[in-house]
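Can't paste images in this forum, so I'm doing it all in text. The chain is below; anyone willing to post the predicted structure tokens underneath?
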Amino acid sequence: MAALAQGEDSDDNMDEFMEKFKTQKYKNAFSESNWEEEFDKVPMFMKTAPENIDPEKHPDLACIQSIIHDDHRTPEEKARSLKDEGNEYFKEKNYKKAIVSYTEGLKKNCMDIELNAIFYTNRAAAHFHLGNMRSALNDATAAKKLKPDHIKAIIRGAQCSMELCNYAGASQWCDEGLRLIPTDKKLQELRATADKQKREADRDARKVKIKAKKEQNEKEALLAAIKERGIKLLKTEPSRHRGSDSEDGDGDGGASRALADLELDGISSQEATGARVYMDEQGVLYWPVLFLYPEHSQTDFISAFCENSSFMDHLAVMFGEELPPWDSERKYQPQNLQLFFEDPEKGNLYQVDLEKSLLNVLQHQRCSVKAGTPSFIVLVSGSSFSKQFLSGKKVQRLK
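Text version of the structure:
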């Protein structure tokens, strides 16, 4: 009877408690508008934990954190808690936070060598997934130093070496691991891949070396051919080429000095095509040549002008049956054209005989090739623009 009476009292109390909700609203209830926000404040349901935990805003989290990082626990206990924390972050693929946890664990300076080796190995794995191969390799090395038979650290070291294209280093890691576990399939696969990649890298290196040697020989032969012809080459920097030749430009000394410090890139065309002078199997040179038309602010570019061809050979094609659209007055007929090159030192103009070959003109003592591209000015003989352009300039005709 007493038990029945107590049950009835409990029912009465519950009825009384429930009756309150009819007249009095529960103050801490979640509303439809904020229930997700409130749920996110509960540690159990949090999607992400805040970076810095404020005890006033997050008392529950602060309490949990104080338990995890309890100052009264031993360094080993604290370190293990941080290892577990880092592992949870790692499982969530939050590798940056995992690295922070593992680093804090190492800072506890616990005396458990195996635990510290795990910290380094796990941190190496996190760095590996972030693409920080050098840091991952350093951690794998530190783990193996603490525990030489730590196979996970050895595998990670081999993987990092592979990613860093250090195939010899990867093979060394694999060999150390296979001495411990000769049947480890992962190490066997890595060893085989490292050997293959090393053979391919060595083969590619040999190809690059052979190609570089061939290009060097071609470069030396090309420069020797230019020097033999007595053609003067100028660098693009005025301070370098100004005064590099003798006053009259004659003789081999100035040209030799210019060639001595000239790189192959220095005689490549400045045009967008990147064309450069080259020598064919018969020893004939082909130059990129630029024609300038100052009256119309136009240019023409011939990527391979044979040194034995005359200027008229090209002009007859360029201004043959079909004249350029910018020549509205149809003045640029081959028989009407004049060609000039400029002396870079004195600024004088030299008129070129159109029947002369390119080689014949380039060998003139006042002609110099700048940036690997001979340049010539084209004017219409007797035109008003030509008279104005040449006025005040010293013009000489090539003999």
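The two ends are 140 Å apart (CA to CA). The domain at 273-397 is CATH 3.10.20.90 (Ubiquitin-like (UB roll)).
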